[in-house]
Specification:
Pfam families: DnaJ. This is J domain-containing protein. By secondary structure, this protein is mainly alpha-helical. It contains five helices and no strands. Helix 2 packs across helix 5 and helix 4 packs antiparallel against helix 5.
Length: 102
Amino acid sequence: MAKKGFLDGYKTYNTDSGFGSPGEWRETFKQRMSKEDATLIITEIAQSPHEILGIKPGASANEIKTAFRQLIRQWHPDLNQHRITEAEAMSKKIIAAHTLLT
């Protein structure tokens, strides 16, 4: 009997062509939400981008990036299956705030 491998039973992806360059990843991220879309989301809620990310106005780019990563990790829909609609809404707010501040 063959020994079971680490990834046996898990869905894997073909990565023969690589994951893409950092520039391609940035462009893909930008395509997901434009500044106009982000502005619409932020104006629908009564919070500023700084309040959503929990940072002070005038925060550095590194502080914005750190706050974004922490919040998106916390509110990612894959990690919040028990409250998926709330997680999706919060993720959109977080991405919109990050889009407007960067």
